[in-house]
Amino acid sequence: MKKIVVLGAGLVGAPMALDLVKNNEFEVLVVDLNEHNFAKLGKAGVQTKKMNLSEKGAIETVVKDADFVINATPGFMGFESLKRVIQSGKSTIDIAFYPEDMFELDALAKEHGVCVISDIGVAPGMSNLLSAYGVTLLDTAEDIKIYVGGLPLKKELPWEYKAPFSPADVIEEYTRPARFVVDGQIVTKAALTDGEILNFPVAGDLEAFNSDGLRSLMTTLKVPNMIEKTLRYPEYIDKIKLLRDSGFFDTETRIIDGKEIRPIDVTSSLLFDQWKLNDGDRDLTVMQIVVRGTKDGKPQTHVFDLYDEHDPASGIHSMARTTGYSATAAANLFLDGLFEEKGVFPPELVGKYENCFTYILNYLEERNVNY
Q1: Half-sphere exposure of 94 (CA within 13 A, CB side)
Q2: Spatial distance between the Cα atoms of 119 and 99, rounded to a whole number of angstroms
Q3: What residues does 256 pair with on adjacent strands?
Q4: Using one digit for the tens of pLDDT, what is the confidence trace for 133-155?
Q5: Alpha carbon distance 239, 245 (integer Å)
Q6: Which of 34, 168, 353, 363 is found 20 to 30 A from 196 (Cα to Cα)?
Q7: 164 vs 188, residue with greater confidence
Q8: Beta-bridge partner residues of 147
Q9: Tens of pLDDT along 304-323?
Q10: How far apart are CA 256 and CA 229, in angstroms?
C-alpha cells in the first residue's frame, strides 16, 4: 500500500484526501495545524495529524515514510514547504500557488531524483494543460485568452462574492501587477484594469479584468499574444478599486492608539466572515480558454469551456472539485507510472504527452468535471 501525505487540510486539501482514499491501494495522511479541518476525514478512513508545518523539521519528519506528497499549504509558505519536501527526496504534486518561480527548484528536484508537478489546479492548472493542447491543434498559434472565476451561485450584496481561499490570497490577486504577452513581449499592467462584460455558457454575463494568472505559460509557450482575466459578477471591479485606492490594502504599518497596524490585516479580518465560503454555500466555477491561430493556411479557433457547480451529494464546493481533482488526477498519473521525469514541471509540460492529457481529462470526467 502506497502512503500519500497531504500537507494542508483546507478547502482543497481535505477533498483531495477524500478522493485519494477511495483508492484502496493508498494510505492517506493529512497534516494541518487546524484540527477543525479534520472533521470529515476520519470517518472516511483518512489519517490525520495536527502539526505546525512551518516549524523546523516538521515537514521532514512527517514525509519521511511517504511514497508521495501533495503540497496544499497556503501560498505564503508554499515555496519553502515544497523545497523541504524535495530535499526529503519525495516526489510531489504542488498546488500551493506561491508567488515565487517554480523553476528555481528544478535543479534541486533533479539533484534529489524526484518529480514535481506544480500549479496543477484549475487555473493555473487545467488552463495551462488545455492552452498547450490547443496550440498542438494548430500549425501556428497566435493568441490565447483565458477567462476564469469562482463565484457564489447566490448573489448577496454588497460583494456578490465568496472566497474559496483566504481573503489575503484573494486581495493579492487585486494588488499584484498583471503580466501578459503582447507581440511576443511580456507587458505589465495594474490588476483590475481593462474591465469588460462577456457572456458565458450557463453563467451568463460576467465582468472580466486583468490578473496575474499566466505564470509559467509566459515562458513555456511561444505564442505571441497571451492573457488571463479573472471573472466576477458585473460591477465588482469598482467596489474593489474603491477599497484598494482608499488604502485598505496597504501593507505599510500605521500607528493607531499606540499600536502598529497594517491596513491590509484589518481589511482581511473584516472580509473573512463576509467572503467566507461556508459548508452550505453553493458555488460555481466557470472557465473559457480561446486559442486562435492558423491550420493549413486558414484561420482556426479552439474554445474549451468549463461550467461546474457545488456537488450537493458530497457537499464539496466547485472550486475544491475543479482544483483538487486536477491535482489528484496528476498524483494518480504519476503513481500509475505514466509520468516519471525528474525535475519541476508545470501542467503544460505534462499534458504535451497525449496519454497524460487523456488520462487527466478522463479522471476529471469520472468525477463530473467536464471540459
Answers
A1: 34
A2: 11
A3: 259
A4: 999 999 999 999 999 999 999 99
A5: 10
A6: 168
A7: 188
A8: 229, 288
A9: 999 999 999 888 999 999 99
A10: 37
